[in-house]
Structures are given as structure tokens and as C-alpha cells.
Specification:
The longest helix is centred in the first third of the chain and has 15 residues. Helix 1 packs across helix 2 and helix 3 packs across helix 4. It is built from six helices and twelve strands. The radius of gyration is 18 Å and the shape is globular. A five-stranded mixed β-sheet has the order 3-4-5-6-7, sandwiched between helices. The protein has two domains: 155 residues, ANL, N-terminal domain (Rossmann fold, 3-Layer(aba) Sandwich); 74 residues, Luciferase, Domain 3 (Luciferase, domain 3, Roll). It has 238 residues and is an alpha/beta fold. InterPro entries: AMP-dep_synth/lig_dom (IPR000873), ANL_N_sf (IPR042099).
Length: 238
């Protein structure tokens, strides 16, 4: 995926500005450099003057080591897939994680019980669900998880991040009404330039909409809710 500097910077600035990331912040870098979450670990926090805490070689999959680093280095920003956040909570038990003030989870379904488990250990932390696609410059949509409704089957996908736009369209490229499922499309500053040296695949997933501008077809199914956010329903190719 070929991403412009403008697209990546738009995403990094949105996160940093929302949470006031600055020189006092520390992020634990758990993502491989081939995984797009690492872009925020490397460039987002450093751009704000913060620091990166790297796990020891050979300990990257050890939750006990993560917990030690969070407490020793007073890590303030957690950025990972939900499964790793769950492993941290399991490892911590009842041990507080009071240094955490921002928890970013993306890349997979978030278990509906996990946000409350995190807040029990880090009561001051903003717990965020983020989503989108690498083709949308890491993240394009977010939702700050407050009270979890017992009736929710899943955590809300959310609303578009600054500089980005999210649409739910039918097969004719028309907006789906509230509650009607369609394919999620990404527009705005984060849309990638395309796939490197793959014009056929680029033409298949990226297109110029007559009213909405250049869009990326995510292949994700979703629907708008009456509350004004998108509910993620899964993939259209499974």
C-alpha cells in the first residue's frame, strides 16, 4: 500500500491533538514494523516529543515483561490489537496500571467486557476503539468507549476521524439509510495513493465517486445507527 506523507501525518496529528500527546508520554512498542500500528508508535509519539519503550529481544510476546515495562517506565499510551490488551489485563490481575492515560485498540473485534476491565485498572485512561484500513492511513474511524451497554453485541465502530470521511454505500454507490447494511467506504485525506506497481488491484479498490470524491472500498460491512455512529458487521468476502 502506498501512503502519502499527508495521509499519515493527518492520522498522527488527529490522535496527538485529541489526547494532548507530549514530551511526558511513553508508548510501549509491541507491533512489528511490518504492521501499520507501528507507524503511530514510531512517528506519532516521537513527533510530539515523547519516548518509545521497546521490549527486550525475545520478550516481545511475554505479558509479564510488558507489565514490568509499563510500571517501570510509566508508560502512558497503549497501542495494540485487543488480544494483547487483554493479555496485559490478565497479567496485571488486580495490580493497577495508573500510568496509562490512553488505550488505543484496533485491528480486530474488541471483547465487550474488555473496556471495563481496563478501566478497573486504569480509571483515568481514555479507552478507544479505532478502525479503518492500511489503505486509509492506519486508522480512519474511532469511538471513545464509555459505558458499555449490556445489550451491545459489539463495540461501536464509531465516526470518522478529523480530515477523513466514512460512508456506507450500496452496490450502486448510494447512501444506505440508517439501519441498512452496506459496504463501508473511506474518503478524505487518509485515502492511499494505491497499491505499489499494481494498477489492476488499485483500480478494483479505489475509485472516483461522482459526488463523494476519491474513495476506498474496504470490503467491510456496516450500518449507520440512530446514535450517529457506524456499527461494524464483518466482511463481505467471508
Amino acid at each position: 500500500v502506498t501512503i502519502s506523507h499527508r495521509g499519515a501525518v493527518n492520522t498522527l496529528r488527529a490522535v496527538n491533538e485529541r489526547f494532548g500527546i507530549g514530551p511526558g508520554d511513553r508508548v510501549l512498542a509491541l507491533s512489528e514494523l511490518s504492521f501499520d500500528l507501528s507507524v503511530y508508535d514510531l512517528f506519532g509519539v516521537l513527533a510530539a516529543g515523547g519516548a518509545i519503550v521497546f521490549p527486550a529481544q525475545g520478550e516481545t510476546k511475554n505479558p509479564a515483561h510488558w507489565l514490568q515495562l509499563v510500571r517501570e517506565h510509566r508508560v502512558t499510551v497503549w497501542n495494540s490489537v485487543p488480544q494483547l490488551a487483554g493479555l496485559l489485563v490478565d497479567e496485571a490481575g488486580e495490580m493497577p496500571l495508573e500510568s496509562l492515560r490512553v488505550v488505543l485498540m484496533s485491528g480486530d473485534w474488541i471483547p465487550v467486557q474488555l473496556p471495563d476491565r481496563l478501566r478497573a485498572l486504569a480509571p483515568e485512561a481514555a479507552v478507544m476503539s479505532l478502525g479503518g484500513a492500511t489503505e486509509g492511513s492506519i486508522w480512519s474511524i474511532w469511538y471513545e468507549i464509555g459505558r458499555v451497554d449490556p445489550g451491545w453485541a459489539s463495540i461501536p465502530y464509531g465516526t470518522a476521524m478529523p480530515g477523513q470521511r466514512m460512508f456506507v454505500l450500496n452496490g450502486r454507490g448510494e447512501h444506505c439509510p440508517v439501519g441498512v447494511a452496506g459496504e463501508v467506504h473511506i474518503g478524505g485525506a487518509g485515502v492511499a495513493l494505491g497499491y505499489w506497481r499494481d494498477e489492476e488491484r488499485t483500480a478494483e479498490r479505489f475509485f472516483e465517486h461522482p459526488e463523494l470524491g476519491r474513495l476506498y472500498r474496504t470490503g467491510d460491512l456496516g450500518r449507520w445507527t440512530r446514535q450517529g455512529w457506524i456499527e461494524f458487521l464483518g466482511r463481505d468476502d467471508f
